[in-house]
Amino acid sequence: METKLAESSSETIREKVRRRYGKTARGEASSCGETCCTSTNAETLGYSAEESAVAPAAADLGLGCGNPLAIAWLQQGQTVLDLGSGAGFDCFLAARAVGPSGKVIGVDMTHEMLSKARENAKKNGIKNVEFRLGEIEALPVADNSVDVIISNCVINLSPEKQRVFNEAFRVLRPGGRLAIADMVATATLPDEIKADWTAYTGCMAGASQISELEQMLREAGFEKIKIAPKDESRSFIREWLPGKRIEDCLVSATIEALKLMHH
Fold first, then answer.
1. Disulfide: which of 27, 166, 180, 246 matches 151 by Cβ 3.0-4.6 Å?
2. Looking at the DSSP assignment, which residues form a beta bridge with residue 208?
3. What is the pLDDT of residues 30-60, one digit of tens each?
4. Are strands 208-209 and 172-185 parallel, antiparallel or unpaired?
5. How far apart are CA 169 and CA 222, in angstroms?
């Protein structure tokens, strides 16, 4: 008998997520049919054709829900951290933006994703990127060491989102910023979706409401919080669980926030 999602510990949830993305990294279809939930074309998510062309193709597993780099305004020499870096797609684009004097750190808890990302970096001679094994609720990153945090459709997968934002705040330098794309709930999710493991690991059931996210970010210490839902994303979200009308309650959003200098 499978553990009920609502009664599961954070550890159980993380294990399920890890297992699902381990399979994705190995190129195995997920248990719910072919690619049921989340494999979305990069251009649909807001990457330019040029961005898709320069990042290693093997790094694009179609797992995002937006393009955090569009709001990250990266500059040469910055240190960037990617929460849930997967096979490295956003890290490689960020590496190009920050140049040889900059540095990108990807953190992921799935061994297979890390191996894939490291292999992609090596194969493509990308030197200013480093991938670390870790959980985004307990980042293997020093305090005040990062300029910009990016993340693409990952924080919704965390069973402990407040800890994620607290950790993000800790590792950012004063003046640093958060630039993430994630799923947000715009209405209460139906119970059958809330209880569905596939919908959770597929980035749907774990999405928080905008007001909850704002409160968690504030609680962590962030200011200048801006959460902008992208209504056009409903057209690709509809494909994730066809016929369930999840696009009525979920949307991809960009989430921006600052750690101001006075901290």
1. 180
2. 184
3. 444 434 445 678 888 888 888 887 787 788 7
4. parallel
5. 7
